[in-house]
Amino acid sequence: MNLSEFFHSSFVNRHSSINGMDKPASLYQSSVGQKVLVALTGLFLCTFLVVHLSGNLLLFKQDGGRAFDGYSEFMSTNLGIRFMEFVLAAGFLGHILLGIRVWMYNRRCRPESYVMSRPSQNSSLAARVMFVTGSVVFVFLVVHLKTFFVPSRFAGNIKPSMYRLVSTAFADPVYAGFYLVSLALMGYHLRHGFQSAFQTLGLRPHRRTLIDYVAMIFWLFIPAGFAAMPVYFLWAAHWARAR
Ligand code: HEM
């Protein structure tokens, strides 16, 4: 199946027929199954954000970047971490491709008339712009990997100081501004995504549950923690120039 067939083929709902006999559709084939997979990959990516933020907090250690560079060296040489990078890439790819497919399916199923479907009454703004916010996060990720991940992993023997790379990149107001806008939209994406994932998995039976407070850690505090990094280095560069 090519990419176009992947996005345009219909879902099989609950059952498919072989030789006239009904058989249950696989998790991958049914619309509900695909939503479950989007939810599970999304939650997996949330766990990555916790780990990534924890390591990056070393940037705030006032030691000229020694601890962060040591951590970065470990990340780029440890075999277990290198293996996990493939799992992570598969998680991102699966989440993006299946997310687009579910989004296209929902669009096809929506009543034609905008007035009839009343989007503003039936769903929140965060839910309706998931495709847009997700696309921004994707662009952010491509720029981010090109700036940090590629030099970290493919620089050969002259690997640069990651601390210096991060602090120099964030001293640029345009680059730092791009991060802040992207992180705000990532938070908005996670705001609906996290709650929706638990709803899909049947773990959020009511509108206001404990999950919504846990969600706040992911859509508010984690993006804010990441945002503190460009803000900090932009501020540090400003004071270094002013002195
Ligand atoms: C704004 C603060 C951030 C900083 C300072 C930062 C820094 C870095 C650095 C230095 C690397 C290179 C690899 C390494 O040394 O381990 C990296 C890799 C990566 N970053 Fe970020 N990052 C930030 C935010 C994010 C966010 C919000 C995401 C997710 C949307 C993200 C996703 C990734 C991924 C997928 C990798 C490659 C896998 C890995 O090495 O763990 N980063 N980041």
- How far apart the termini lie comes to 61 Å
Shape, principal axes of CA atoms? globular
CATH superfamily: Fumarate reductase/succinate dehydrogenase, transmembrane subunit
CATH class: Mainly Alpha
Major β-sheet, in short?
2 strands, antiparallel
Note the run of SSEs as H and E.
HEEHHHHHHHHHH
Residue-averaged pLDDT: 88
Instruction: Supply the number of helical segments.
Output: 11
Structural class: mainly alpha
The helix fraction, in percent, is over 70%
Gyration radius, rounded? 21 Å
Number of domains: 1
Going across the biggest sheet, name each strand in turn: 1-2
Low-confidence stretches: none
User: Which architecture per CATH?
Assistant: Up-down Bundle
β-strand percent reads under 5%
Reported by name, the CATH topology is 3 helical TM bundles of succinate and fumarate reductases
Distinct small molecules: protoporphyrin IX containing FE
Count of strand segments: 2
Which helices and strands occur, and which strands form pairs?
Elements: H1 3-8, E1 15-18, E2 21-24, H2 31-56, H3 66-77, H4 79-109, H5 114-117, H6 119-122, H7 125-128, H8 130-154, H9 162-170, H10 173-200, H11 210-242
Helix pairs in contact: 2-4, 2-10, 2-11, 8-10, 9-11, 10-11
Bound molecules: protoporphyrin IX containing FE.
